[in-house]
Amino acid sequence: MSERLADHTTTRVGGPARRWVSARSEAAAVEAVRAADAAGEPLFVLGGGSNTLMADAGFEGTVVHMAFDGLEVLGEGETDPEMAEPDATDRGGDAVVVRVAAGHRWDDAVAWTVEHGLAGIEALSGIPGSAGATPVQNVGAYGADVSQVLVSLRAWDRQAPGGGAVVELSADELRFGYRDSIIKRSMVDSGAPSPRWIVLSIDLRLRRAASGAEPTAPVRYAQLAKALGVEEGSQAGLRTVREQVLALRASKGMVSDGEDHDTWSTGSYFTNPIVPASVRARLPEGAPAFAAGTAPDGTELVKLSAAWLIDHAGYGRGFGLPEVAPREGGPDGRGPDGTGLAGGRASLSTKHTLAVTNRGGASTEDVLTIARAVRDGVRERFGVELHHEPMIIGTRL
Ligand SMILES: Cc1cc2nc3c(=O)[nH]c(=O)nc-3n(C[C@H](O)[C@H](O)[C@H](O)COP(=O)(O)OP(=O)(O)OC[C@H]3O[C@@H](n4cnc5c(N)ncnc54)[C@H](O)[C@@H]3O)c2cc1C
Q: Which end of the chain has the least Cβ crowding within 10 Å, N or C?
């Protein structure tokens, strides 16, 4: 029997793969991708399934599961002149380049770096999924994102002459943006289910504390600084940062936990919308907005809070769950304000309005039903379009 995506994704939805390859080495992954491409077979590359929503009908092609791990220190002691300038708040110490295999569990890599006193990715603790997927949408949290430390990556370029080749792409070539990179664009812009570049390993530039000094990192996020009891921009111990980030994330249902349906999700379902500053002026007072640069035509841009918009459009935590006592006249606890939508099988998380969750027994369509209601409601209330963060394959929002 073919593998079901529901058994390999954090939302636990998605139909079967026609063909499933568990690639236990880089060579096996390349071979499987090459064979699928040579046969003209649709391809989907799966890491930890924490940013994937696959159609209930499944995937009519080959799914290559990146099931190989590995982590090695490539270089230590010297600052490579090719690398980005050290963070202004760094306190010296040596640059260390660590190579992580695509299938390596990301949070295991973070834990390893913290354990070894290497600063750079501690604020990205607790993000589920594989290392190879982190550059795809430039994962980020608590004031950090992977573009700040990624030097380069190795990838299988499916469009290289002769049916593909291993290439190295620098951080500049990846054109990172907010939850964006050329790898993601190669799927989104073409509508293809998998990218042009299949990431094989990533190289991260981390920093070892000066000899004898406590390994610390700058705290770049107000909520995290508050929880740590330090000023934003000041330093805190690596282990303390990791522990606090994990605690904050757990309180929001943002650490995968099989027992907790609030984490049966893809994390944040919607990205924070980046809009012209004039849009902000139309929103109620108190709507958070952060400067987000300028558009190519010079228009000033701001980043809005998707969570705020969702909440203030009337979609609170748990939206979509049946009421405890069904409303009079409403079947299955379904009321006029969306209670019981999708039969209560899917809902917004009860801890955070940004996550669309499977309460058990949900289908992909159930999850999308909730997401559509929220997206349409925000558009109607505020005239702002929310964009989905997970990759949706074989169906649409
Ligand atoms: C509880 C929870 C919390 C989360 N919190 C955050 C957060 O704080 N910040 C954040 O940015 N994200 C967050 N996410 C989203 C998700 O964890 C990240 O996007 C993660 O990097 C996805 O990794 P994955 O291996 O699970 O990707 P998958 O879901 O397996 O794949 C995602 C996409 O990347 C492609 N892909 C996967 N591996 C490769 C590869 N090796 N080469 C090329 N393409 C590949 C897939 O084809 C697919 O299009 C969260 C998710 C959950 C469930």
A: N
Domain range summary for the chain, segments of one domain joined by +:
5-66, 71-251, 263-271+306-393
Question: Residue 334 — pLDDT band, cuts 50, 70, 90?
Answer: low
Q: Which CATH class is domain 5-66?
A: alpha beta
43-57, 118-132, 199-213, 301-315: the lowest-pLDDT one: 199-213
Q: Flag whether pLDDT at 39 surpasses 60.
A: yes
What digits encode the pLDDT tens for the residues 83-124?
444 443 344 568 999 999 999 999 999 999 999 999 999 999
For the chain, report the end-to-end CA distance as a whole number of angstroms: 29
CA of 285 to the centre of ligand 1 (A): 34
C-alpha–C-alpha distance, residues 30 and 116, integer Å: 31
Does residue 363 have an active-site annotation? no
Q: Is the CB of 127 under 6 A from ligand 1?
A: yes
- Beta-bridge mates of residue 285: none
> In the structure encoding, which two tokens stand for residue 60, read together?
């009519």
How many angstroms is it from 315 CA to the middle of ligand 1? 25
Task: For residue 357, give both structure tokens.
Answer: 């969750």
* 71-251 belongs to CATH 3.30.465.10: yes
pLDDT of residue 147: 98
- Contacts (Cβ under 8 Å, ≥6 apart) of 278: none
12, 19, 179, 280: the catalytic one is: 179
Q: Beta 43-46 vs 59-66: how paired, if at all?
A: parallel
Annotated catalytic, 389? yes
Q: Is the CB of 199 within 6 Å of ligand 1? A: yes
CA–CA distance, 313 with 310 (Å, rounded to integer): 5
Compute the distance between CA of residue 169 and CA of residue 322 in angstroms, rounded to an integer.
Answer: 48
Q: Which of 3, 26, 122, 389 is catalytic?
A: 389
Confidence (pTM): 0.93
- CB burial of 269-279 (b: ≥16 within 10 Å; e: otherwise) equals bbbbbbbeeeb
- Which tens digit of pLDDT belongs to each residue from 244-272? 999 999 999 999 999 999 999 999 999 99
Q: Is the CB of 14 under 6 A from ligand 1?
A: no
pLDDT at 25: 98
Cα 138 to averaged position of ligand 1 atoms, centre (Å): 9
Residue 193 near ligand 1, beta carbon < 6 Å: no
